Amino acid sequence: IDLLDQKVHQYLKNLKEIKLNGVYRIEKTSLGKILSLFCLLVLFFPVYLYGVVNNFIPFSLSIWAKKKIKDPQFKSSFLYVVSLVAFPLLQTLQTVLVAFFVDHWYWVAAYFVSVPLSGAFLIYYNNLANKFQRALKIFKLFRKRKTYMDQLQNDYQEILNIVDSLLHIDQADFEKQTR
Question: What's the rounded Cα separation, in Å, for the pair 78 and 69?
């Protein structure tokens, strides 16, 4: 277990050194995958922009409320309650405002349905943009520091092998004890 702890700490330190925080498994990324992610980001940017415009106030209110809570145990619960109230309330108010300017009820209904969907898409798009940034960074690192990145991949595999061997040892001990 000490060896595993040492390997994991060294691996995480190496990831932090090359600013790959939040990335635990490094896989080579092809240029085709990066280009396809980029094309998706460009293609769906107008939908993302629509989501930003229509969900800016509720998201900002949630972030503001989260910053007001000091106790980390209550942050997620408080954020959930604020979001649960703020999003439907503000989106309904937006829809009422749109209804004053639009003559046909079906456009208002379409807007009412599209606002929460655009908020969900906003989260998806942000995740996709983060995935693109990580993939591009890893791609560049493999081009500039190939041996270092290969070593990181080997270190990761070594950590998995140690965990696997520990699990097999524990399983064998468990089977002996239960016989």
Answer: 8
Cα angle 41, 90, 66 (rounded to 5 degrees) comes to 75
Domain total in the chain: 1
Mean pLDDT value across the chain: 88
- Does 103 map to a domain? yes
Question: Residue 2: enclosing H or E segment and its boundaries?
Answer: helix 2-17
Domain holding 60, by residue range, is 32-130
CA distances from 1 to 6, 7, 88, 164, 177 (A): 9, 10, 49, 12, 21
Element holding 171 (H helix, E strand): helix 146-178
For residue 107, give both structure tokens.
């456009």
Q: Does residue 15 fall inside a structural domain?
A: no
The 3-state DSSP composition of the chain as helix, strand, coil percent (nearest 5) reads 85, 0, 15
In a domain, 52, yes or no: yes
State how far the Cα of 100 lies from the Cα of 55, in Å rounded to an integer: 19
Confidence of residue 106 (pLDDT cuts 50, 70, 90): very high
Is 105 among the domain residues?
Answer: yes
Q: Are 58 and 74 in contact (CB under 8 A)?
A: no
pLDDT for res 172:
57
Each residue of 2-28: b (16+ CB within 10 Å) or e? eeeeebbeebeeebeebebeeeeebee
